[in-house]
Structure formats: C-alpha cells, structure tokens
Design a protein that fits this description.
Number of strands of chain B: 0
Radius of gyration of chain A: 20 Å
Number of domains of chain A: 2
Helix content of chain B: over 70%
Distance between the termini of chain A: 54 Å
Number of helices of chain A: 13
Order of helices and strands of chain B: HHHHH
Mean pLDDT of chain A: 89
Number of strands of chain A: 0
Strand content of chain A: under 5%
Radius of gyration of chain B: 19 Å
Mean pLDDT of chain B: 88
Order of helices and strands of chain A: HHHHHHHHHHHHH
Distance between the termini of chain B: 25 Å
Helix content of chain A: over 70%
Largest sheet of chain A: none
Strand content of chain B: under 5%
Largest sheet of chain B: none
Structural class of chain B: mainly alpha
Oligomer: heterodimer
Number of helices of chain B: 5
Low-confidence stretches of chain A: none
Largest interface: A-B, 95 and 77 residues
Chain lengths: 238, 108
Amino acid sequence: MMTPRRSALLRGCLASAPFVIVVVPFAVLFGVVATEAGLDLLQVLLFSVSVFAGASQFAALQLMQDQAPVVIILATSLAVNLRMLMYSVAMAPHLGQAPLGTRALMAYFLVDQSFAASQVEFEARPELPLAEKVAFFFGTVIPIAPLWFVSTMVGAMLGQAIPPDYAIDFAVPITFLAITAPMLRSIPHIVAAGVSIVVTLLLAGLPYGTGLLVAAVVAMGSGAMAEVLLERRRNHGR
Amino acid sequence: MAVDPIVYWVTVPILGLGTFLLRFSFLGLLGNRPLPAAMRRALRYTAVGILPGLIAPAVLWPPATGGETDPARLAAACVTLLVGVFARSVIGAILAGGVTLYICLWLF
C-alpha cells in the first residue's frame, strides 16, 4: 500500500506528464535561439534556471538583441510574467499554510504547467490535506523542471552546430504567434492582440521598445474594457 | 545582433528575482486574499497584449532582410497563426510555420 503522500506525488507526476510534449521543444528552441544570439552554454543554462519562464525568456532575448535599454527589457519581460501573480493568488488558499521554506521552493517551481495541473486537482478535491496538496504540487514539477533545464542545454549545443544563415531569426516570431494563437478564444482577447499589434506598429518610431510597453498597457486596458462592455451588453439583452 | 554580455549579466539576475517575487507574492507573503476585480481583469490580457506587439515589426519588417517585407516570412507567420487558431496546438503551429518558411525560402 502506498502512503497517501506518495500517491499524491505520483498523481501529480501523471497530471503534468502530457505537458512534456510542449516543454521539450520549447526549451530546445530557446537554447538554439539564445546560442545564435551569442550566449555561451553557461549563460543559456543560467537564463533558464534563474528565470524559468519560457515566454519572458524569449521576450528578454529578443529585446537584448534589439539593443533595448535594460529598464525596458526588464519592464517588458516582467509584464509577460504578470500572469504568475494570478497563479500565486490561486495557489495561496491551498498551499499557503506550508512552512515558509517550502512555500519559497513551490513559488520557484510555480510555472504554467505545475499551476494548470495543480489548479485542476485542488478545485476537484479541495478537502485534500495540506501535506498531500504539497506532494501533488511537487509531483507536477518532476516531469517538467529537469526536462526544461536539460532540453535548454540540448538546444544550446544544437545551436552551436547550426550555421547562422538558416533563417533562425524567424523562430521567435513563429513561436510567439504559435503561443498566442490558441489564446484568441474570446472577443476581448482578439481585441487586446489587435490593439497590441496596431499600437506597436504606430509607435515603431519611438526609441527601443518603449512603443511596445505603451502598446502593452493600452492593449491590456482594451481587453479589459471589451470584457466589461460585452458583459454589460449580455446582461442588457437578458 | 549579438547580446551585450554586460546587458546579459545585469538583466538576467534581476529578471529571475523579479519573476520569483511575482510567483512568491501571494503564496509566500500576502497570503489568502483576492485581487481587485479590475486588476484580475487586466491581468488576463497580459500575454495576449504583449506577445503580438513584440513580434509584429519582425513579421512585417524582418531585420534579416534589412527591413524589407519578405513574402516567405509573411506567409510563414500567416500559416502559424491560422494553424494555432484553428488547431489550438502550439507545437502544430510552430511546425506548420517552420515548414512553410523553408518551403517558401526554397521556392523564391
């Protein structure tokens, strides 16, 4: 018979295992693109270990290559990661009673995949004891985190082998389009994406990356506003 | 263009720490309290508000072609978007876009 904690850990592993299909190619691609941008193996690995958030890593890398000022790189990349704040809010009722050290460790591992898998489990079984919730959470991390680091390194080594003239410059735009496209599932999301594109292009003359930051704020506001307007209209029609 | 090592060594540690603090915020420090509704609403649109703008100039005016609009890259971008929207698959969209790009580059 397995202890409840061990079985929770195992369930966590199984719940996040399907994400491996997304994590591996994404990390490899980051390794390749970062190496092509002139980073060495150590720099690429440290990037993935310290930031541990794919989309913002690609964003930071792109802006570094565009020679954007550090402040702009940081503001934009951190804005990409603002969704983590929502994850943190959602996990607090379930994991907030764990010891501080454990919470810090869980925070480090709070990525898209561990959040998505844990959120589903904790909503389905809110009565689960704290120890089992913690075990489940760490279970979701096991298939993801080591592979993220290893695949980044594999990508970095691949990148050193690929000659620079293979149109790898376009890997980042394609990746970001691919990440964003499935998110366009509601009118406010489409509005936000459209505003983001139009405003960035209109402000393309502004110094490095500042136009993007303005566009991001306007786009977020437009998305939220579209949501409110739609809701109001729906309530009106009732 | 290659990344300036100084920029790298300044940016990455701060970005790492900042990202950790975002993750740690409520789980570690602020505890069990809800976000204001307006903030929650705006946060829903962070990714979708930033990523398209980040790449829009590179799609229309790729630095690799000296800023000249490139039919191959434009076609690849359209295919990626369409596959992503309709198949809802990130990896499928990346593959479709990549294949389109190389076919077009080879054709033209």
